[in-house]
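User: Structure please.
Assistant: Input sequence and predicted structure:
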Amino acid sequence: MPMQPHPQRPEWMIGDEADLRDPPPVDTPEGTRGLYGQSPDDWSPRLYLVPAETPIEEIIEFFEVGTSCSIRHGWAERDTLDLVTSTLSRVNDITPGSIEMATPSELRFRFWRRLRVDEIEEIESVYRKVDEYQAGLERYISNGLSGASLLHDVGETGVLNLLWR
């Protein structure tokens, strides 16, 4: 797949359209990591190679994560970006991981190791303090896990899937 420097961020490389069902490549040039993204300028998701040390905040901001339906819900886009950034940064402080996919309507965050029960509980407490829908937990709320851990699935899969509709 041919990679080109991104016009706005020359240190980022951008490839062709990608299938989000596939995991991002792990064999990337030294000092980079792969992720799938769809910026507001993209017609569909694409493969991005970004410097390995790119902060979560920069990725969320660039792909405008969570803003796809802000207006419909009455949320200010800036407030949504700030909320997504702050909650995911706290989650990453609890148990580190990396963003595998980022679009205005979805984000996939993979933890680098298996989560302990106390870590899942701590992550849930981060989300209990905010609007869970605006923070992207719709997929978990819609599963109706009443009486059970809201993020039980995250502990099983090692992946936090955030969604905005």
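Strands lie at 4-5, 13-17, 32-37, 46-51, 97-102, 106-111, 159-163.
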